[in-house]
Amino acid sequence: MWSQAWEFLLTAAIGLIVAGVFHFHQNNIKHFPIRGVWLWVFDLCVWLVVIPLVFAGLLLINQGEVRFRTFLALFLGGILYMAYLKPLLSRPVEMASSYTAKSVRSVLSVLAIPRRFFKSGPPPEDGE
Predict the structure, then answer these.
(1) Integer Cα distance of 119 and 105 in angstroms
(2) Does residue 117 have a pLDDT over 80?
(3) Which among 36, 75, 33 is positioned nearest to 54, based on CA atoms?
(4) Is there a domain that residue 106 lies in?
(5) Closest by alpha carbon to 32, among 120, 88, 97, 124?
(6) Total count of domains within the chain
(7) Measured between alpha carbons, how far is 83 from 77 in angstroms, rounded to an integer?
(8) Which of 26, 28, 15, 6 is nearest to 81 (CA)?
(9) Is 39 inside a domain boundary?
(10) Which of 106, 100, 108, 102 is nearest to 25 (CA)?
């Protein structure tokens, strides 16, 4: 009985972590001016982080056994995060997302420096 309660609490903790990742992802979408296909790629990257996290957590907690209580605990963890932790962590997550956006922009601007040395106009004509 106590082992099931412990597994439920640990699975709810995974739900809290996943909800935090999605909260950070939502703030990143607000700070990055990405749309269309790049937004899909960004979403795919987030899911490629979240799915192994949940899988590894469930594998360690209850040997990968998926039952209704597992989904209930994950959902409950997400609800608890949104109800209680999101208001408390909103400002730190916003700042972390802002710093992430600034860091990525600065790295991309440094990587774009060699591009400035090349002309972007049409090729010269040979007088034809």
Answers:
(1) 23
(2) no
(3) 75
(4) yes
(5) 97
(6) 1
(7) 10
(8) 15
(9) yes
(10) 100
pLDDT of residue 128: 56
pLDDT tens per residue across span 71-106: 999 999 999 999 999 999 999 999 999 999 899 889
Residue 47 in domain: yes
Which 3 state secondary structure label does DSSP give 18? Answer: helix
| Residue 117: inside a domain | no
Domain hosting residue 43, numbered range: 2-112
The SS3 assignment for 34 reads: coil
Looking up tokens 């594998």 gives: 59
Confidence of residue 121 (pLDDT cuts 50, 70, 90): low
Query: Under 8 Å CB-to-CB from 8, ≥6 apart: which residues?
Result: 69, 73
What is the C-alpha to C-alpha distance for residues 15 and 77, in angstroms, rounded to an integer?
A: 4
| Tokens coding 47 | 């899911």
| Ordered alpha helix ranges (H), 32-128 | 37-62, 68-80, 86-111
